[in-house]
Amino acid sequence: MHRYRFLSSRQWVILTLVSIALIPTMIKLGFWQQHRYEERTARNDLVSAALHADPVPVERLTSPGHAVTRAEKYRTVTATGTFDTAKEVVVRRRTSSDGEVGFHVLTPFVLTDGKVLLVNRGWIPANGAQTAFPKIPAPPAGRTTVSGRLMTDETTAASGIKNVAGLPDRQIMLIDSAREARRLGAQVLGGYIQQTAPQPKGGSPEQISDPGSEDAPLNYAYMIQWWLFAAAVPVGWWFLVRREVRDREEAAAQPQPEAGEPAAV
To answer: Looking at residue 85, what DSSP letter applies?
Structure first.
């Protein structure tokens, strides 16, 4: 075993300890990517199922104070009532499909039973400083039937958007049905909808596109990659050991100069 005595040197002890530490770390990272893959796959399946489900009346899925669930999110719902533009607000710092910053238009929709559904009618440009209430294209007048994707109330934790105070009149940061119920003094259905029909005249507000799927296959590839790295570490360590043994044996096999004989240059 004298061939491997070099393994007790400081350099090789450090290399071996680092290799040992890398293996469980890479295995853990692989499991983390596996969990991400499973979460994204489940989320994509839920979104796909919701988008392809048959439309249902909105009050079948939500009610005042109801917290929209993951299974209910993105379901297409319908409602009949009247838009109340006098109490319309805009949601700040929202981007268009092209990445331009503007507003989302949030309009109360009064149902036939008097309850209120919050309708995100889409995006409009800010047109400069976001201080004054913008000019907004009017929705259909009178009794109307709308369709849209049911959404959960927005929170700072989920969106990263801070609900700051002191905003200009009729401007908000987050869509929160409980907060809007207090402002409107009405029974507001939990969550809100992103309107998909009827289409706005002239294409404004710009309606929000369907949610895209998250890239789950990429997480699967990363999972395999980390586990291959973990398997490669001991193989690489053994390859370095064998090369070190070979180099030392070749150096020992070289003829040594006799005493008094000058070394070859």
So the answer is: G
pLDDT in tens, 188-200: 999 999 999 999 9
Closest CA to 108 of 56, 183, 207: 183
- Six token digits for residue 207: 């309606």
Q: Are strands 116-125 and 171-172 parallel, antiparallel or unpaired?
A: unpaired
Helix (H, G, I), strand (E, B) or coil at 48: helix
- Residue 54: which H helix or E strand, with range? none
Burial track 184-221 (b if 16+ CB lie within 10 A, e otherwise):
bebebbbbbbbbbeeebeeeebbbbeebeebebeebbe
Q: Under 8 Å CB-to-CB from 136, ≥6 apart: which residues?
A: 85, 88, 90, 105, 124, 205
pTM above 0.85, yes or no: no
Distance CA 217, CA 127 (A): 40
Q: Is the pLDDT of residue 214 over 80?
A: no
Q: Tell me, what amino acid is at 81?
A: G
Q: How many CA atoms are closer than 13 Å to the CA of 244, on its beta-carbon side?
A: 15
Q: What is the pLDDT of residues 101-144, one digit of tens each?
A: 999 999 999 999 999 999 999 999 987 777 888 999 999 999 99
